[in-house]
Amino acid sequence: MPDLDSRENVEQFVELFYQQVLADPELGPIFLDVAAIDLDVHLPHIKDYWCKLLLGERGYQRHTMNIHRQLHGKRSLAGPDFARWLAHFEATLDTHFTGQYTEKARRIAGAIAANMEQGLEF
Ligand code: HEM
């Protein structure tokens, strides 16, 4: 299985991850109804975000925490939501990718999800 060591593979990962998240009965509506994302706008941001975190690319320069804080104001995001999000993230990695970048993605996602969950507790 490939590693998340190129933009091409990171983009493939994001597509596969979002297929799962958007199909999730709890999480899908948060993206599609609450935030009403335009996938053609949203997915390139997510791809740039992971290319920054994993490959050191500089394309993503937005404030992720503020975006989730705003979202949290419309539909509260709590422990079980983060657990589902992470479960899809890890299942996508486990099924399609392997290697040191894959493990880096797993660590970073876990740490950011925990931080974000704490940061939204108020
Ligand atoms: C409960 C878990 C989560 C849910 C339900 C969720 C949902 C969302 C939604 C609906 C948006 C679009 C917001 C908008 O455009 O108005 C978004 C954006 C984003 N999320 Fe999450 N998110 C979760 C966790 C995370 C985590 C843990 C990370 C990072 C590891 C993350 C990274 C991002 C990024 C990078 C964006 C793009 C922001 C931008 O437009 O630049 N999310 N999220």
What would you say this structure looks like, in words?
This protein is mainly α. It has a single domain (7-119), classed as Orthogonal Bundle (Globin-like), CATH 1.10.490.10. The chain is 74% helix and 0% strand. The protein contains six helices and no strands. Helix 1 (7-23) crosses helix 3, helix 1 (7-23) packs across helix 5 (79-96) and helix 5 (79-96) runs antiparallel to helix 6 (100-119). The radius of gyration is 14 Å and the shape is globular. The termini are far apart. The structure holds protoporphyrin IX containing FE. Residues 27, 30-31, 35, 37, 42, 45-46, 49, 62, 64, 67-68, 71, 77, 81-82, 85, 109, 112-113, 116 line the site of protoporphyrin IX containing FE. Heme binds at residues 45, 68. This is Group III truncated hemoglobin. GO terms for molecular function: heme binding; metal ion binding; oxygen binding. Keywords: Heme, Iron, Metal-binding, Transport. InterPro entries: Globin-like_sf, Globin/Proto, Hemoglobin_trunc.
In brief:
Heme binds at residues 45, 68. The chain is built from six helices and no strands. It has helices at 7-23, 28-34, 39-55, 64-74, 79-96, 100-119.
What is the count of DSSP helices, taking H or I runs of 4+ residues?
Answer: 6
Tertiary shape: globular
User: Under the CATH scheme, which architecture would be assigned?
Assistant: Orthogonal Bundle
What is the alpha-carbon Rg in Å? 14 Å
- Give the ligands present: protoporphyrin IX containing FE
Secondary structure category: mainly alpha
* Proportion in β-strands: under 5%
Distance between the termini: 41 Å
Most strands sheet: none
Order of helices and strands: HHHHHH
Q: Do you know the CATH topology?
A: Globin-like
Low-confidence stretches: none
CATH superfamily: Globins
Helix content: over 70%
The beta-strand count equals 0
How many structural domains are formed by the residues?
1
| Subunit arrangement of the protein | single chain
The overall average pLDDT, rounded, is 97
CATH class bucket: Mainly Alpha
